[in-house]
Every structure is written in C-alpha cells, then in structure tokens.
Amino acid sequence: MIQKFLIIVSVLLGISAAGLAQNAPRMEIFGGYSFAKASFSSTNSPFFLSAVPFGQDFDLRGWEASVSENVDNWFGITQEFTGLYGNPRLNSFNHNTHLYSFLSGPRFAYRHNERITPFAHALFGYDEISMKIPAAGGITAKDQSYGMALGGGLDVRLHGIFALRLIQADYYMTQFFGKTQSNLRLSAGIVIQLGRTGY
C-alpha cells in the first residue's frame, strides 16, 4: 500500500509545467469527498475479551475540509478536518464506524503554471474513532490516537476564485486500539482561493 501511495505522489509532484510563476492565493479553502482504505485487519477488536483481530481491511467514505494560509509563493500552513463513515461487517457483526481527524502542518506548492499547482504536505494531529454494533445491543467502543497524513495533490484552476482539487493522496497513519494502522486516503473537491500573497 505504501509503495502505491509513493508512486501516486511522485507522479503528482513530477508533473512539469511551462509558463511564468503565479502569485499564491493568501488563503485556500477546500471542501470535498474523501475515501479511505482502513487497514484494520491485524488490529484486535475491542469487543472481545481475547485477542481477536478484526481480520480484514474496510472502506470508509465521507468528507474533508481544510484551510491553508500561504506565507509566500511556495510555503503555507494547513488546518484539516475529516469525517469518514462506514458499516463494515467484521467478526460476523456490522460495525457502525465514525472516524474523525484534526490535523495541521506545513504545505509546499510548486507554482510555475497559471492553472496547475502540484503540492505536498505533512500533517499531524488527533484522531477519534467510534465503532458500534447495533445487533449486540448497541455496544460501542471509542478510542483517540495520534494521527499523521503525508501526501500531496494536484489543483487545477477553473475560473476566478475557484479551482478543482483533481486528487489528493495521503499515507494516513492512525493508532487505534493499541495498534498502528497504515491507511490510504484519497480526496477530491473544490478549492476557493482568496487574496494574493504578492510574491
């Protein structure tokens, strides 16, 4: 999974663009769809007394929102908020799952084309998960953990203040229920660009 992620990011950041460098927006507000392949197969289920793993990975889908403030033409700080949801069938029970993340960190952009902007970021922060089994009386397990997202993406300017985040790909690490999960997260959506840095 990590190798696939590195290939995606390398392709995004390896895109060459001709043309004059553009001034960075002072602020970029992103909102869109997010998908994660949650790597929980070897994580022990909190619903069993013995060490019984979940036994499989599963998909989560939801939303992502972020605000990036650019200090200059290539460097900025991003605050990111994500909500992911699913109802995977694990250990013969459906698990109503909610996962939220609150991450922040540096963002680096390559602005040498008026329309296309590849970027990379390293985000760190807090994650929270809730898993409920409705068929077992609604018993619920919750956990909080350190979180990290390392990745990048590609923004394509549309018109005026609007741009399309064609793709964002992240290696997304969580540490729930005493284990480390190496997840893959993909996002896409609309970016609103406000102001200009003047650099």
Could you provide a short overview of the structure?
The chain is mostly beta strands. It has one helix and ten strands; from the N terminus they run αββββββββββ.
Structure report:
The protein has a single domain (2-194), classed as Beta Barrel (Porin), CATH 2.40.160.20. It is mostly beta strands and 199 residues long. The strands form two sheets. An eight-stranded antiparallel barrel has the order 1-2-3-6-7-8-9-10. Strands 4-5 form a two-stranded antiparallel sheet. It contains one helix and ten strands, in the order H-E-E-E-E-E-E-E-E-E-E. Mean pLDDT is 89; it is low at 15-21. Helix content is 6%, strand content 61%. A hairpin with a 2-residue loop joins strand 4 and strand 5. The longest helix is centred in the N-terminal third of the chain and has 12 residues, at 2-13. It is elongated, with a radius of gyration of 19 Å.
